[in-house]
């Protein structure tokens, strides 16, 4: 770890995911970050070329901050990510549908999203076993974008759903 910068050495946790393919480094980092206090940093080391893009997109949506990316030997990169509790939940609306069976979570999410402005984010909480595949199919054919999905606990999911802006809606139906 002596090749990391002084800023990276201040992070209380270092996670070396070298050799893991995306999205495994991001998922492992998320699990550790969830347990850190607000404002704490984690250094994620990865050699997967997609990790940087994954982290940037994920951080933008979830409120975590990707504060540094430092090239290391062997094609690896050290990413410093800060848990930013004040901005952690970017949702305009949170819909808790745990305990409801499909298609209930999708129907309620659609009802709420129909009343939201383009670009606004709805976080749907669901533990319906069919929700991951149903929501993926639903968002593939509508003006709703599945920004991200996290399995918070086994079988319990957070779906980050966003109404697309008009210029992003081409080719989508309005189901």
Order of helices and strands: HEHEHEEEHEHEE
Strand content: 25-35%
Number of strands: 8
What class would the helix/strand composition place it in? alpha/beta
**Low-confidence region ranges:** 1-9, 85-89, 170-175
Number of helices: 5
Distance between the termini: 51 Å
| Range of helix content | 25-40%
Largest sheet: 4 strands, mixed
Shape: elongated
Please give the radius of gyration in angstroms: 18 Å
The strand order across the widest sheet is: 1-2-4-3
Q: Quote the average pLDDT.
A: 83
Keywords summarizing the entry:
elongated; alpha/beta; 175 residues; 29% strand; four-stranded mixed sheet; 5 helices
Detailed description of the structure:
With 175 residues, the protein is α/β, with parallel strands linked by helices. It is built from five helices and eight strands; from the N terminus they run αβαβαβββαβαββ. The strands form two sheets. A four-stranded mixed beta sheet has the order 1-2-4-3, with helices on one face. The protein is elongated and about 50 Å long. The termini are far apart.
